[in-house]
Amino acid sequence: MMADAFLGINILHDTSAALVVDGELVAAAEEERFNCDRHTTAFPNSAIDFCFERAEITKGQLRGVAVTFDYRQFRLNLQPFEQNTINHDDVTLRGRRKIAEDNFATWRRAKRELARSGLPTPRFMRHHLTHAACGYYLSGFDGAGVVVFDGRGERESTSLWRGSGARLNHIESYSIYDSLGQLYTYVTSLCGLYGKIGNEGKTMGLSGYGTGRLHLDDVVTFDPNRYHIDRKRMRELSRYRVPLGQLNSDSQELAYAVQKKLEEAYRFLARRIQQLTGLRSFVLSGGVALNCNANAMLAGSPDVERLYVPPAANDAGTSIGAAFVQWVEYSGKSPMVPIDPVYLGPAFDEDAIKASIVRTGLTRVAKVCDPARIASEAITKGLVVGWFQGAMEFGPRALGNRSILADPRDAEMPKKLNDRVKFREPWRPFAPSVLQEKAEEWFTPTLVSPYMLLSLTVRSERRSLIPAVTHIDGTSRIQSVTREVNPMYYRLIEEFFARTGIPMVLNTSLNIRGESIARTPDDAIRCLINSGLDVLVIGNFVIWKENINLAL
User: Fold this and answer.
1) Beta carbons of 338 and 320 less than 8 angstroms apart
2) Rounded CA gap, 117 and 130, in Å?
3) Which of 13, 127, 131, 471 is catalytic?
């Protein structure tokens, strides 16, 4: 009997593929994990192949394929991408011509690559619909107001939706010229932080150093039913522009100002959708919804009963949304809600790990019975540990299967990690993975944050105990971990808690600057060799560097 299989593919940036079979999300992967090009625009051939391999089906068994953007609209579309906003004045004739050229080239490339893929003829879906579907159907809510905001869709940058049962209905939208995502990207560029697409998170981190000296009240304004962005006023912020990597105090203030204005827009949109729907359950999706500070602000609001942000709120997650929409239209039913929609990628057995170790010629290697105990013991000693276990995460966060782990008690650890391991800016903060049942003793407000998408406040009496994961503004972007979802990672943290009284470890992604998160054992071992990692725990094997003493 033929399975009801639907493939969603995102082919703009952060390209990805996801497969839903009989209403179940069975596989999802980002192409960047295969080609090691962060935020890649490459067609997701490898991600697609992985999805078929994991589900044990072929292209010929698909009932449908959908692309997460209606590229056909680009032929006459003069509205800007974020890159146009940064590099060109889209009001001038020259800027509009450049936008038209870029958009038409994007359309041509999409047609060419789809023709080469060998896939059945795809549907082109509304971009914001696929964002909304990813968030709403993963939430498990039976009804919710859904807000999608990003740099741009085909002709919209913010859209409001109502989810009811299996249905998603559009309510209203904002044009691309009112793009909160493009405003945030533009400020990221002015602050000297926009080296490549996807660097807006740096601006969020930098905002913690601001004091409120600058504001954007004349750039973003609000009337009773809509917000507006004045692009002329936005362009006037260019007086604060600094060269790449050379931020100053104005950069800190500008980051603070755009962050506060974004949070104001969050509150406005939540009130607006509540006014239109009467609902107090909310779903956020789109690249802007990766903003942990704004998410937590809204989640802690007394007007919000429940808030869900999908782990891949960015464009990577739209492939899941496109697969879900096809299933819902075909069956009339909501898709199944997975226990956790993160660990959907490739996994490697002991033979594959052993073969990778043998290829490298490393000799300081041991096979162990209890990798969680070994890792927690090493972290307690102040060592920096690479942790590679099980299936790869889907989305931009490392959530305990492809992670670098360290001691949150060590105030010097952020500098050590930024200088020797991650090779990135010294002011960038690090996040903790915490036992969920202990989180409220350390952070406020009491919120569950399984995907590291909420920045909570570290309780003042606890901050001196975990300086490595407490940002300059007293916040921390936590991941709450449960035994049910990730039993081995939970046990590692539990072991560390038993040794130290601290129910969390510092967690950052297993990669170095400029590279995507490790996918294979080879990737993980290369990260060990080329960075300041001390130890790599990979499956049931432990690899360590010279002069490192481990109690095995």
Assistant:
1) no
2) 21
3) 13
In this predicted model, what pLDDT tens digit does every residue of 493-534 receive, in sequence order? Answer: 999 999 999 999 999 999 988 789 999 999 999 999 999 999
Q: What is the CATH number of domain 141-311?
A: 3.30.420.40
Residues shown for the chain = 552
Tens-place pLDDT, residues 252-266: 999 999 999 999 999
**β 306-308/281-285 pair status:** parallel
Homologous superfamily in CATH for domain 350-544? Carbamoyltransferase, C-terminal domain (3.90.870.20)
Closest CA to 446 of 432, 433, 456: 456
Instruction: Check if the beta carbon of residue 149 is closer than 8 Å to that of residue 157.
Output: yes
Report residue 307 as tokens: 């808030």
Token match 């082919």: residue? 11
Determine the Cα–Cα distance for residues 63 and 323; give it in Å rounded to an integer: 11
> Rounded CA gap, 109 and 117, in Å?
12
Report residue 207 as tokens: 């905002």
Annotation marks residue 39 as catalytic: no
Please check whether residue 70 is in contact with residue 124, taking contact to mean a CB–CB distance below 8 angstroms.
yes
Quick one: average pLDDT of 389-415? 97
Query: What topology does CATH give the domain 5-130+318-331?
Result: Nucleotidyltransferase; domain 5 (3.30.420)
Dist. CA 520–CA 523, nearest whole Å: 5
Cα separation, 454 vs 268, whole angstroms: 19
Identity of the residue numbered 332: G
Give the HSE-up count for residue 399: Cα atoms under 13 Å, Cβ half-sphere: 28
Summarize pLDDT for 225-241 with one digit per residue, the tens.
Answer: 999 999 889 999 999 99
Q: Which residues contact 255 (CB under 8 A, 6 or more apart)?
A: 187, 191, 203, 204, 206, 207, 209, 210
Residue intervals in the chain for CATH 3.30.420.40: 5-130+318-331, 141-311
SS3 115: helix
Yes or no: say if 458 and 432 are a contact pair by the CB < 8 Å rule.
Answer: no
CB neighbours of 393 closer than 8 A, spacing ≥ 6?
A: 311, 342, 343, 344, 345, 399, 401, 402, 517
Residues of the chain with CATH 3.90.870.20: 350-544
pTM of the full structure: 0.95
Separation between Cα atoms, residue 140 and residue 121, nearest integer Å: 31
